[in-house]
Amino acid sequence: MTTTTSTEAGALWQNLADALNSLIAAGLFPDFHDLYGSRNHWQHQPYVSTPARADAPWVVLDLATRQFTVSTRERTRSGEHHRRPPRKRR
User: Fold this and answer.
1) How far apart are the first and last CA of the chain?
2) DSSP 3-state assignment of 10?
3) Tens digit of pLDDT for each residue in 32-82?
4) Phi, psi (deg, nearest 5) at residue 15
5) For residue 58, what are the contacts with CB-CB under 8 A and spacing of at least 6?
6) What was the pLDDT predicted at 52?
7) Burial class (CB in 10 A: 0-12, 13-18, 19+), 83
8) How many CA atoms lie within 13 A of 30 on its CB side?
9) pLDDT at 16 exceeding the cut of 90
């Protein structure tokens, strides 16, 4: 099924769909997750991985920059891409 829209947002969503379809065609089926816990200060942090290969890159929402970035499993799980907690005032 192909849908077309004339809006810029529609084109962006189509680009995302094309990228996901390319991953599937390559045999790298994307798995969508949400990190949530003490390592990222209890903030929801979406990430995408693939169970096809253990060494495959992960795409994670970096909470400090509010942008998705390509990372590794180890860096994502260690909390490297979380937003720093606010500084406490004295």
Assistant:
1) 59
2) helix
3) 999 888 877 888 999 999 887 778 899 999 988 889 999 998 888 887 887
4) -60, -40
5) 47, 48, 49, 70, 71, 72, 73, 76
6) 74
7) middle
8) 18
9) yes
Q: In what order do the strands lie in the sheet with 31-35?
A: 31-35, 45-49, 58-62, 67-71
User: Is a pLDDT exceeding 90 seen at residue 30?
Assistant: yes
Q: What is the pLDDT of residue 68?
A: 94
Q: Which residue has the tokens 């096809």?
A: 52
Specify the pLDDT at position 56: 86
Alpha-carbon span 47 to 27, nearest angstrom:
19
Residue with tokens 């970096």: 62
Q: Token pair 């860096």 is at which residue?
A: 75
Contact 79, 85 (CB under 8 A): no
Q: What is the DSSP letter of 66?
A: T
